[in-house]
């Protein structure tokens, strides 16, 4: 069935389906751009003038993780603030490249806008699409066409090596699965995990450091595959578990302090007692 043609807005794109409240977003963005330009000017802030794309790398990464932490905490005020800090890094980087005559923030915004329109023909061109698998295949075809003739080739090409290991592992397995290199269902992954556990324990028994490390890596990789089958982000799951552990451990320390003891002065039995209480109060 041929889809109905969509109405177009003034910029040639389909109008938003939902009613949006008018705001001052363009003015706010322009204000931020002018402030950053002033900070980078000869009469601006020495610290901001001294920054380079290389020096901002760690700040960009830190701000991205602080956004994730705010999202985990579901703290709306902090989410807004941390998104602002992350946006500042993008505006700063864009300003630096603009000063070099390479590109500016408008080029960044238009570039991603063009990419979104190109990669969503089912939204902006009215083409038909089936299920989620069809959508993923369409996405891969479009991305492959974009890179045709470029340096990035191969199914696994282009996945950043600096990604956290769990996130990178999940992206690698997702790419491989899309071309059919995958188990037919999650039961195959579960059997693989059992196999990897046995091999890891055998390596531990052999006391081979290299073997232990290799088998431990294989076990983690298999668990990431299972997370993918269950539609779970392995990176998010581990980060949330770490957060729970930290909050529960802090609960132990706080309760021991109320008893006039430090964590170092306490026995394992005492710590375990408060740990069980922490599990009940901190899910």
List the helices and strands and how they pair.
Blueprint: H1 25-40, H2 46-50, H3 57-73, H4 76-99, H5 105-119, H6 121-124, H7 132-146, H8 165-178, H9 186-206, H10 209-229, H11 234-258, H12 268-281
What would you report as the Rg, rounded to the nearest angstrom?
25 Å
Which fold name fills CATH's third level, the topology of the largest domain? Helix Hairpins
Main sheet specs: none
| Residue runs with pLDDT of under 50 for 5 or more positions | none
Shape: globular
The name of the CATH architecture of the largest domain is Orthogonal Bundle
- Average per-residue pLDDT, rounded, comes to 88
The CATH top-level class label of the largest domain = Mainly Alpha
Percent of residues in helices: 55-70%
Helix and strand string, N-terminal first?
Answer: HHHHHHHHHHHH
How many domains?
3
What name goes with the CATH superfamily of the largest domain?
MazG-like
Beta-strand content:
under 5%
Total helical elements: 12
Structure classification: mainly alpha
Polypeptide structure, described:
This protein has 283 residues and is mainly α. The protein has 3 domains: 25-119, Helix Hairpins (Orthogonal Bundle), CATH 1.10.287; 165-232, MazG-like (Helix Hairpins), CATH 1.10.287.1080; 235-281. Helices cover 67% and strands 0% of the residues. It is built from 12 helices and no strands. It has helices spanning 25-40, 46-50, 57-73, 76-99, 105-119, 121-124, 132-146, 165-178, 186-206, 209-229, 234-258, 268-281. Helix 1 packs across helix 4 (76-99). It is globular and about 65 Å long. It starts with 24 loop residues before the first helix and ends with a helix. The relative contact order is 0.05. The mean pLDDT is 88.
């Amino acid at each position: 069935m041929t889809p109905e043609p969509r109405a177009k807005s003034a910029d040639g794109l389909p109008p938003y389906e939902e009613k949006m409240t008018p705001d001052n977003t363009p003015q706010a963005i322009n204000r931020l751009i002018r402030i950053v330009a002033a900070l980078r000017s000869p009469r601006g802030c020495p610290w901001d003038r001294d920054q380079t794309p290389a020096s901002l790398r760690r700040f960009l990464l830190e701000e991205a993780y602080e956004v994730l932490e705010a999202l985990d905490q579901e703290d709306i005020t902090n989410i807004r603030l941390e998104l602002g800090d992350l946006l500042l890094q993008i505006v700063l980087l864009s300003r630096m490249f603009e000063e070099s005559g390479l590109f500016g923030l408008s080029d960044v915004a238009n570039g991603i806008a063009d990419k979104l329109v190109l990669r969503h023909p089912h939204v902006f061109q009215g083409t038909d699409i089936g299920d989620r698998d069809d959508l993923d295949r369409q996405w891969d075809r479009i991305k492959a066409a974009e890179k045709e003739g470029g340096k990035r080739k191969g199914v696994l090409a282009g996945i950043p090596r600096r990604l956290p290991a769990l996130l990178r592992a999940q992206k690698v397995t997702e790419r491989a699965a899309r071309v059919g290199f995958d188990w037919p269902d999650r039961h195959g992954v579960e059997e693989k995990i059992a196999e990897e556990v046995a091999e890891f324990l055998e390596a531990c028994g052999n006391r081979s450091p290299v073997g232990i490390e290799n088998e431990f890596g294989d076990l983690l990789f298999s668990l990431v595959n299972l997370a993918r089958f269950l539609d779970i982000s392995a990176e998010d799951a581990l980060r949330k578990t770490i957060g729970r552990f930290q909050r529960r451990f802090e609960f132990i320390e706080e309760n021991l302090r109320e008893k006039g003891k430090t964590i170092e002065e306490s026995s394992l039995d005492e710590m375990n007692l408060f740990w069980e209480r922490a599990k009940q109060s901190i899910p």
